[in-house]
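Please, structure for the following, as C-alpha cells.
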Amino acid sequence: MVKVKIFSGQESIYLAEEIADFYGHPLGKCKLQKFKDGEMQPVIQESVRGCYVFLIQSTFAPADNMLELFLMIDAAKRASAEYITVVIPFFGYARQDRKDKPRVPISAKLIANLLETAGANRVMTMDFHADQIQGFFDIPVDHLKSEAIYMPYLEKQNLSNVTFASPDVGGVKRARTYAKHFTRPLVICDKYRKRANEVAGMTVIGDVEGADVILVDDIVDTAGTLCRAADIIIDKGAKSVRALCTHPVLSGDAYKNIENSKLKELIVCDTIPLRGKSKKIKVLSSAKLFSKAIRNTHEHRSISALFVGG
C-alpha cells in the first residue's frame, strides 16, 4: 500500500499532533521559513515521492494561514507526491458563499479554485457554513459532521427535558438533525441585522417554558447572535441554555459577551485554538474523527461510515 505522510501548517500543529497520534503515525517534518518582509517559504524536510500526503491546516485569520497551505500543496506537488489531501478542520471564507448583494465576491468558490490550482487532489473538512460549498469543487470533498462528536457526548447527558434550538433561520436544518435524532422539540430564533456582526432584533418561534435548551450552530464569531438568543430564551421561561458551536472563531468581544450572557455553557470543537479563557467554554476534540477519516481515505474505505447513522 502507498505510504502515508502527514504534515501540518504552523497554526494547526496542536491538532495535527493529536490526529497523527490517533492515526499511529508520526507527524512529518516541515518548517516554515520567513524572509524579513514576512514572505513565507514552507519546507517539507523529508521525501514524499510517491506518497499519500495529508496536509493539515485550518484557514482561520490571518490570511497567512491560507497562503501557507497553498504553498505547502505546491511544495508537495513539486516533490512528486502521489496524492495530496488537504485537511481543513475550519474552512475560512465559507460564509461568503453567494452574491447576496451587488459587487461582492463569492469567496468560498474562489478559495475552492485556488486549492485545486495549487494541486490539491482531495479536500477534507468539517461543518461547512453551507452544504452547497461542496459543489464549488471539481475534486472529491469529504465533508465531516461534528454530529459524530457531539451526539455521543450528548447521549451521556440527561436529555429528558431538552429542547433544541437554532439561533437563526439559516441553521434550522442543523438543529433539526439533533431534535430528530434525540426525538426532542425544536424551536427557532428569527433574527434580523442592520449590519454584519450586529443583531438588530430577534423573536423566538416555539415553546421553551421550563426547558433546558441547547442552541446548535456551526460558527461562533463575536457570539452576539448566540448570547442574544440565550438571553431571550431565558426571558421566555427556559430553565437553562447551552450551545453547541463547531468552530470557535471568537473574535472581538466574544469572550466578554459569553461571560456576561445567560448562556450556561458553550461547547466547541478544537478546529480553531482558543485565544482567551472562559469557564463557560468546553472544548471537545475532533482529532479522532479526522484520524479515522484519513485512514479510511488511505485505505479506500467509506467516509460515510463515520457519520452518525452513516
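The chain has a mean pLDDT of 94. The radius of gyration is 20 Å.
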